[in-house]
Amino acid sequence: MASLTVPATVPSPAEDCEQLRKAFEGWGTNEALIISILAHRNASQRRLIRDTYARIYGQMLLKSLNDEISGDFERAVILWTLDPAERDAMLANEALRNWKPANRTLIEIACARTSTQLFAVRQAYHALFKRSLEEDVAAHTTATFRKLLVPLVSSYRYEGPEVNMKLAKSEAKILHDKISHKAYDHEDLIRILTTRSKPQLIATLNQFNNEFGSAFNKNLKSDPKDEFLASLRAAVRCFCCPERYFAKVARVAIEGLGTDENALTRVITTRAEVDLQLIKEAYMKRTSVPLDRAVAGDTSGDYERMLIALLGA
Amino acid sequence: MASLTVPATVPSPAEDCEQLRKAFEGWGTNEALIISILAHRNASQRRLIRDTYARIYGQMLLKSLNDEISGDFERAVILWTLDPAERDAMLANEALRNWKPANRTLIEIACARTSTQLFAVRQAYHALFKRSLEEDVAAHTTATFRKLLVPLVSSYRYEGPEVNMKLAKSEAKILHDKISHKAYDHEDLIRILTTRSKPQLIATLNQFNNEFGSAFNKNLKSDPKDEFLASLRAAVRCFCCPERYFAKVARVAIEGLGTDENALTRVITTRAEVDLQLIKEAYMKRTSVPLDRAVAGDTSGDYERMLIALLGA
């Protein structure tokens, strides 16, 4: 369930472009007008606006936005305006240029998208960066992380509903055996997590819970500071309960001193057209505070208004 | 350069189907008629014939072929009649069901196809087997081979012509270093071979040759019986000189006692629409015997006639 709201009658792309052009004209910029248009158009409408803008004004809309606005507001508007696959390719590249084990962007892109969407990200990555996604992941990540991330971003999982219960049982045992020996990066554990279809994997993890009396992820908490274990847990949560996973990313971004604007923008722009409504419900359930109120309390100005608009307020 | 010959005026799919139906009718089968049609139609024409046949006769053409013909001839006709991506998916699955280190089918599919073709194979594999290709590769291969084959079949290499010479130099050094220490399955060696674009890889291998005075593949011959080293050499040859690689597969299939029909059929059906003309030239250069004469000398009957037709005689 998306949170994006699109008006019942949408102006033509040419009309939207004219309004955007007006928002950029003269002294200062009309940020409210930009938000009122772009934050209320779906991916194919935004694509049409970008194409029309380039045709009419001989300039890229993203370039104009880049000239007119700045800071967290600019980042949110530009990430949102991109096609989903392009946006993910940009986010992945950004994560790789300064890769840190604590960054979960690659895990999210590899595990919380459909197989077809992930492949579209790989195509967009070729077009934007003249390299392959897996090539950059392999070159910029290290050791254990590389063993996990390269097959994750290269996966093209089967998407049918079929589940093989015999396999689920045998692989639950393998997972338990590897975890019992703290062999968290064992090739069989990585193989199961990176190649099996999501329904098959969920059956295996349920089997794990039934057979061994505690959830797979609970067994990956031996060292709370271990970022590799945290990455495995994030992957599992992206498969099994993406809305609760993203609600937590938003919560961590908002809580504590300061705000992690990058993470907050990432959650809102990548999920507004997917399941942000469910994320809001999961957030409310966990914190007893509506996500839009929490966002409003922690951000300000045009950036705040952009996020609130995408949250469907 | 393909070897396939298609007549200047091709009958309509309905006419072709009618003739095929005639070939199947009554006592016995008219194999020559089957060959005269199917062995002289390109992939999109064969696809149309299959669709039309199913519509007119309410039966799958492949099923009718399966009922009417047998042995090596059947295998050649059916493999040829399939779409290229479906054919590769079938060949990969066949190789995996009884996987042996000496089988090079997966290497060929991963390394001698374009990125888009390899992705189409992965899509066809989903549709045919309800699992992903990489999932079966990971589950059926072992140890060192798995380390190489999973990333190879999962790759989606960048296909632009750009080459980074600085990178080629540094990675040639890495390859040389790993090989000097006999670390043939080192993760950096695997990473370079499985993720870099083909032009980049060729630049790196040329650099290797220039800098260290002998070809990369020459350095992978320390143990002629080591199938992993042979697989690495096959991958490199599929990247750099597919026509010479396939000419050798055909030569090995033909030479010696008995014929390896599976390998011969694989080379001819997978390359007839790609570069079989070049493979014939490479074969001639190496053996001084035309490939079609060698095939005719080593096979017989309808199987021989089918292969000779695909060879463009």
From TrEMBL, chains A, B:
The family assignment reads:
Belongs to the annexin family.
Q: Which UniProt keywords apply?
A: Annexin, Calcium, Calcium/phospholipid-binding, Metal-binding, Repeat
The record ties this protein, via PANTHER family, to:
ANNEXIN (PTHR10502), ANNEXIN D1 (PTHR10502:SF104)
**In the UniProt record, does the keyword Repeat occur?**
yes
Record text about domains? A pair of annexin repeats may form one binding site for calcium and phospholipid.
GO MF, one term, reads: calcium-dependent phospholipid binding
Its GO biological process annotations read: response to cold; response to heat; response to salt stress; response to water deprivation
GO cellular component assignments = cytoplasm; plasma membrane
Which is an annotated Pfam family here?
Annexin
Residues where Ca(2+) 3 binds: 298
**Which InterPro entries does the entry link to?**
Annexin, Annexin_repeat, Annexin_repeat_CS, Annexin_sf, AnnexinD_plant
- Record-annotated residues binding Ca(2+) 1? 24, 26, 28, 68, 254, 258, 296, 299, 304
What SMART domains is this protein classified in?
A: ANX
Q: What is this protein called?
A: Annexin
